[in-house]
Specification:
Layout: E1 10-15, E2 21-27, H1 37-51
Antiparallel strand pairs: 1-2
Protein name: SWIM-type domain-containing protein
Region (Disordered): 81-102
Organism: Umbra pygmaea
Protein backbone atom coordinates (compact mmCIF):
# COMPACT_ATOMS: atom_id res chain seq x y z
CA UNK A 1 0.00 0.00 0.00
CA UNK A 2 1.34 3.39 -0.99
CA UNK A 3 1.76 5.88 1.83
CA UNK A 4 0.14 9.24 1.06
CA UNK A 5 2.29 12.12 2.21
CA UNK A 6 0.72 15.33 3.39
CA UNK A 7 2.22 18.50 1.91
CA UNK A 8 4.27 20.29 4.50
CA UNK A 9 4.01 23.94 5.37
CA UNK A 10 6.73 26.43 6.17
CA UNK A 11 6.46 29.63 8.16
CA UNK A 12 9.17 32.17 8.85
CA UNK A 13 8.92 35.50 10.63
CA UNK A 14 11.49 38.21 9.90
CA UNK A 15 12.04 41.43 11.83
CA UNK A 16 12.33 44.51 9.62
CA UNK A 17 15.71 45.84 10.72
CA UNK A 18 19.20 46.28 9.32
CA UNK A 19 20.29 43.50 9.04
CA UNK A 20 17.00 41.57 8.82
CA UNK A 21 16.64 39.17 11.74
CA UNK A 22 14.94 35.76 11.65
CA UNK A 23 12.71 35.80 14.75
CA UNK A 24 10.71 32.59 14.29
CA UNK A 25 10.59 29.64 11.90
CA UNK A 26 8.56 26.46 11.74
CA UNK A 27 8.37 23.73 9.12
CA UNK A 28 6.20 20.61 9.26
CA UNK A 29 8.88 18.42 7.65
CA UNK A 30 10.73 15.77 9.68
CA UNK A 31 13.62 18.15 10.42
CA UNK A 32 11.32 21.14 10.96
CA UNK A 33 12.17 21.65 14.62
CA UNK A 34 15.69 22.69 13.67
CA UNK A 35 16.74 24.99 10.85
CA UNK A 36 15.80 22.62 7.99
CA UNK A 37 16.75 22.80 4.31
CA UNK A 38 13.31 24.17 3.40
CA UNK A 39 13.77 27.17 5.69
CA UNK A 40 17.31 27.79 4.49
CA UNK A 41 16.21 27.55 0.83
CA UNK A 42 13.39 30.05 1.38
CA UNK A 43 15.73 32.48 3.16
CA UNK A 44 18.32 32.13 0.38
CA UNK A 45 15.73 32.68 -2.36
CA UNK A 46 14.33 35.72 -0.51
CA UNK A 47 17.81 37.23 -0.15
CA UNK A 48 18.52 36.54 -3.85
CA UNK A 49 15.33 38.31 -4.98
CA UNK A 50 16.11 41.19 -2.62
CA UNK A 51 19.63 41.64 -4.07
CA UNK A 52 18.21 41.60 -7.61
CA UNK A 53 15.49 44.12 -6.60
CA UNK A 54 12.77 41.80 -7.88
CA UNK A 55 9.43 43.27 -6.67
CA UNK A 56 7.42 40.02 -6.99
CA UNK A 57 8.29 36.36 -7.30
CA UNK A 58 8.34 35.41 -11.01
CA UNK A 59 5.81 32.73 -12.03
CA UNK A 60 7.07 29.18 -12.51
CA UNK A 61 6.25 27.81 -15.95
CA UNK A 62 6.08 24.11 -16.56
CA UNK A 63 7.80 22.60 -19.59
CA UNK A 64 4.41 22.10 -21.28
CA UNK A 65 3.65 25.84 -21.17
CA UNK A 66 6.56 26.80 -23.41
CA UNK A 67 7.18 25.91 -27.04
CA UNK A 68 9.26 22.99 -28.20
CA UNK A 69 12.97 23.68 -28.55
CA UNK A 70 14.44 20.30 -29.38
CA UNK A 71 13.82 20.65 -33.11
CA UNK A 72 15.11 24.23 -33.42
CA UNK A 73 18.67 24.62 -34.61
CA UNK A 74 21.10 26.53 -32.45
CA UNK A 75 23.48 28.02 -34.98
CA UNK A 76 25.02 30.85 -32.99
CA UNK A 77 28.05 32.01 -34.97
CA UNK A 78 27.80 29.18 -37.52
CA UNK A 79 27.37 30.20 -41.13
CA UNK A 80 26.74 27.78 -44.00
CA UNK A 81 29.39 27.46 -46.68
CA UNK A 82 31.10 24.97 -48.99
CA UNK A 83 33.31 22.33 -47.35
CA UNK A 84 36.11 23.03 -49.84
CA UNK A 85 36.54 26.56 -48.39
CA UNK A 86 36.85 25.43 -44.76
CA UNK A 87 40.07 26.35 -43.00
CA UNK A 88 41.23 24.14 -40.13
CA UNK A 89 43.30 25.85 -37.44
CA UNK A 90 44.78 24.68 -34.19
CA UNK A 91 42.82 26.02 -31.20
CA UNK A 92 44.68 28.42 -28.92
CA UNK A 93 44.18 27.69 -25.19
CA UNK A 94 42.51 30.37 -23.04
CA UNK A 95 41.28 32.33 -26.03
CA UNK A 96 37.65 33.39 -26.26
CA UNK A 97 37.44 33.82 -30.04
CA UNK A 98 36.54 31.59 -32.95
CA UNK A 99 38.91 28.68 -33.25
CA UNK A 100 39.00 25.22 -34.72
CA UNK A 101 37.13 25.22 -38.03
CA UNK A 102 36.34 28.44 -39.90
Amino acid sequence: MKKIEKPHSLRIVLRDSVPVVLTHHHCTCVAGTALCNNTVALLFQTAHYSQLSVPVVPPVHSCTESGQRWHKLQTIGVKPGPVSKMVKTKPVPNRMTEHGVR
